[in-house]
Q: What sequence folds into this?
């Protein structure tokens, strides 16, 4: 794969400065932009490695610290191997950070990230791709709905919750989306039950959105994350294949 160049960048938002990681092929050329939205455990080495792997396939990838309002990453110190069953206090630390991201904060942040990508000389003109993990899949859907003119492809992996009974539920926003969507739900995931998946697909169908939904049998919530107890190598590799195919179909070269 192509060698990549990764750097730390600070992105000014309406609410402060988001410390971020930006990585792109080390060839001096511009490449399609990708926004990678973290899971609840935050920006850490394994997520930067995921960004590098996507970049090596010919993309310029931005990974912002979604929790920047609470500090620079790592906002919560994570062990090298994350096993929430053995460390239940991890969830107690990250859940308040996740809940502190209402739609108005997301709109401000996503607008800043997309503007930064549009201004970067390493990013080609045109729509970008967005990929999100766990809570990031929810944020990816909302970003595509808020900025349909900027987002051309969205992928969500072991995402949730995508269907809630609140007015800001992602499934209620999909009518604005112009991107092609791909979702790979975990077969063992109480965040997205079969009923949730059916309701989300129904909303996408009704909105006329181009999408494909799959369930990876036996996979746990978090299966893409190599530094966690939920990691499943076969499902994670499948996720990369589907993600890159989606971006290759939809993002301008």
A:
């Amino acid at each position: 794969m192509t060698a990549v160049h990764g750097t730390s960048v600070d992105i000014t938002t309406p609410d402060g400065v988001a410390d971020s990681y930006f990585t792109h092929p080390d060839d001096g050329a511009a490449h399609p932009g990708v926004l990678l939205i973290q899971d609840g455990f935050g920006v850490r080495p394994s997520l930067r490695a995921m960004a590098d792997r996507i970049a090596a396939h010919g993309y310029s990838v931005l990974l912002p610290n979604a929790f920047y309002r609470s500090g620079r990453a790592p906002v919560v110190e994570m062990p090298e191997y994350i096993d929430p069953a053995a460390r239940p206090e991890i969830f107690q630390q990250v859940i308040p950070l996740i809940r502190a991201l209402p739609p108005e904060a997301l709109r401000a942040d996503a607008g800043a990230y997309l503007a930064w990508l549009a201004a970067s000389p390493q990013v080609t003109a045109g729509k970008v791709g967005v990929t999100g993990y766990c809570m990031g899949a929810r944020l990816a859907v909302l970003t595509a709905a808020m900025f349909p003119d900027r987002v051309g492809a969205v992928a969500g992996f072991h995402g949730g919750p995508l269907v809630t009974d609140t007015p800001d539920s992602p499934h209620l926003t999909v009518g604005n989306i112009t991107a092609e969507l791909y979702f790979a739900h975990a077969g063992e995931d109480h965040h997205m039950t079969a009923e949730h998946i059916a309701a989300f697909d129904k909303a996408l169908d009704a909105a006329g959105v181009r999408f494909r939904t799959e369930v990876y049998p036996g996979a746990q919530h978090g299966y893409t994350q190599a530094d966690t107890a939920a990691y499943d190598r076969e499902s994670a590799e499948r996720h990369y294949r589907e993600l890159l195919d989606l971006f290759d179909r939809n993002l301008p070269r």
The chain has a mean pLDDT of 96. The two ends are 17 Å apart (CA to CA). The beta strands are 4-13, 16-25, 33-37, 60-64, 128-133, 151-157, 180-188, 211-220.
